[in-house]
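Hi everyone, sorry if this is the wrong subforum. Our group has a chain we'd like a structural model of before ordering constructs, and none of us has done structure prediction before. Sequence below.
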Amino acid sequence: MDRNDAPFGWMNRRRLVQSLAVAPLLGLLDEAAAGAAAGEPAERSIGLAAVWRRALDPGDKGISRRWFASALPDTFPLPGSLEQRRIGNRVTVDTPWTGDINDRSYFTAPDYARYREPDHVKVPFFLQPDTWFRGAAWYQRDIEVPAAWAGKRVELFLERPHWETRVWIDGRAMGRSDALHVPHVYDLGVVRPGVHRLTIRVDNRMIVEIGHNGHGVTDHTQGNWNGIAGRIELRASEPAWIDRVDLHPSFADRVLTVRGTLRRIGSERVDAADIAFAGVSVRATIAWKGDEGRFEAQLRPAPDDAAARRAWDEFDPVLHDVSVTLPNGEEWQGRFGWRELVATPQGFTMNGRPAMFRGALECSIFPLTGHPPTDIDSWRRIMRRAKEYGLNHLRFHSYCPPEAAFDAADEEGVYVQIETVWANQSVMIGSGLPVDRWVYAETDRVLAAHGNHPCFVLMTHGNEPGGGKTKAGEARRDAFLAAYLRTYRDRDRRRLWTAGSGWPLIDESQYHVTPTPRIQDWGQGLNSRINAKPPETRTDYREFIGRYRAPVISHEIGQWCVYPNLDERRKYTGHLKARNFDIFADRLRDNGLRDHAPEFLYASGRLQILCYKEDIESALRTHGMGGFQLLGLQDFPGQGTALVGVLDPFWDDKSYVTAAEYRRFCAPIVPLARMSTRVIAAGTPFAFDVDVAHFGAEPLAGAQIEWRVADTAGKMLAQGDFGPRDVPLGNAPLGLSAAPVLRVDRPAAAHLIVTVRHDGKVVAENDWDLWIYPAALPAPAGTPRIMRADRIDAAVLDHLAGGGDALIGLPGRSVANYPDRAVQLGFSSIFWNTLWTERQPPTTLGILCDPGHAALADFPTDVHSNWHWWYLVHRAGALRLDLLPAGVKPIVRIIDDWFTARPLALVVELRVGRGRAIVCGFALDGQDAADPVSRQLVASLERYMAGDRFRPDVAASPDQLRGLQAG
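Answer:
Right subforum, don't worry. Here is the predicted structure as tokens:
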């Protein structure tokens, strides 16, 4: 095995403080600054950030023609990527993208024709680079080895190359590395002082087929770039040096085991290593076997040294420094935390306390650079943003971030899960393909590079492993992953291991990650709980997770979309552009909806929050649940454009929700209400139970749990409390219940609010929207002029022609739809996005209305969808406004998918002949319309029609009206 393919113990060597690994996202770092940023004396490290020579080699001629033996012709600044400097090929419809394109209509559909024109190509699938390059690129510069390095061993450090590198010094080959997620380090041996030619060949093709949708390689997220990011350095060491140090802290007895590996050149020998921690030092004897030396020692902080014994977790992320020093001056410094994550049948514990992972995915989405940052400040911001939104966990989907991400997570107290591949679609795992060997090698490299970080608590080989969709292939997959788990559970007990994110659920896993416990799964469409069942807050997943001995984390919950924020385009100042947003803006403009874009963003965003709240609370309600991993907290710009975040790809807010609001239902302590319905008949008991998902730092002794119901005007309808009581850690049911009788004279929107106080302070508060309707509807305000109808027929048209009014409720199945890309109306927001899911329903993003419209005067509503709209929308069809004259302003609008952006409505008003009509995309009568919500809306519409404010602006012909009905 090539030295540079071996497990990379070098990562921890002579690193003074892990958090000092700083490099710019763009631009250059001068050599002196590079050495200082690495935290090393200038004479031991030389930064190589500079303008290098370079040449592109798409035809793979460079090696055979010995490009390393002569000066390359062009110039290029490193660190950086070709794409950042707009070097490569222009984008065309034939660009060989890395990653699947599920919906091929872009290549043939007439409405995409203008985006396929040469020099005007715009793709809807992901952020579009200005240029692209696949293949080998050569980078070269002259380096000077100082005289002080005579007789010393020299290594080349490349922090984040993409992907394969090969290195030559003065024409002498120094090896290759196919590591993807960790630095490449080349042992150059003893290099004589003076000037030398250093040549690096970087190849960003699929060096090993590891799955072309994996976020370490795919164009869907960071992009498949070519170059080197982060630090590029020469480092000098003595002929005997520290190759690797592994820290194994035992939480229970506060014993730190330190294991080290040394290397040497020739007969150079050191016999001992001095290890220091918390004022305690020991000398470990080094046992040599050939050119490898090993040592092991244990250290214990003094029993009365409380500071040195403090544990690390999300609430108190305390780090402790350790140093290893050799007699020849070689030194290694690192950090660790005392912590113990345990998996039990009742969930996780962290340091002996119940713990629940509240996580989101990080998929290597960095639009300004196209690669993950290597500076710690960028990662500190990301970790802090996650915690601001109540999360304590990030899952790095099918990739491993740079060292700075681990440093930041250590400091901020964020638990991380690491993965190496997404071996699906283009490859399968466990069938003897090269990906099998590479996964083992990359796992070893990741553990060597980052294994000491306390934040690094979970690991799996990768995401959603494929087995070729055959029973035999899946059996081979499962056997391979079982062996993988047995290997690494024994090799590294500092973290927990699972077979895969998503599947399979096998006995060898120490925890499971599965999509089953969530409110909508892939392919469920309108049959999911959120779309097919009336709103409630009692459902949890105890029956499912009770089947497994290991804790269960729900996989990629959410995936609820929001409308594109078209103003976001100005942020894309790097080489990746949101040209997909240009397409969406054109669709809106072409359909006369451009001015509604901000309203669509807000209304769909508020619906998105409702969906996420129920998704998260369902997990929090489940006693013994291991946690959840959102997809996601930020938008996912690839796979057809999945706008699933409450933050944009830059980790910025989108204006329709704040972190404080989000933390009401996603935080260490969250009050929970179990309700069978959100729609209440006035004068009848409203029964609910109260629990608390308490995964905070300590139990709450003598907490006060209060509840109140108030309408939206602030009028108190009922209130109570459960008296002082202890709230233990965890989320076991508390047995608290109430059943107040709520009385209103008019229909009212209200909130149930639950507050938890401790020592006189509010420690958590949460709320749920309710709708209260009088038991009896107001007397109909109709007149003989108003006809109610469930179809548009001759009788209705004659009535309108004679000057009568008609309230028409078309059952959803009888509403005219589009023959191509039909609207599929549902209550929830769009799941993931319709381009990637091949238009899995729903294909809409909720409703938009004016609550002040006179037609809604007796129907309390927000501008956006809320839970009571489920009773109408789940059985409705979308009315096509393109079939009506221009200028129709719906009473209730439906927000279409941004890929089609068609004008749709749920309720419209029109003049027809001498008469007037309101048309609804849902039935007015019958069993499906017997619920209080439907009855109240119909009553409000009738009252409006009977009053003097019913004055439709736009006239439609009888044929146009009839066109709203399916033939």
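For your construct planning: DSSP finds 15 helices and 50 strands in the chain. The CA atoms of residues 720 and 945 lie 42 Å apart.
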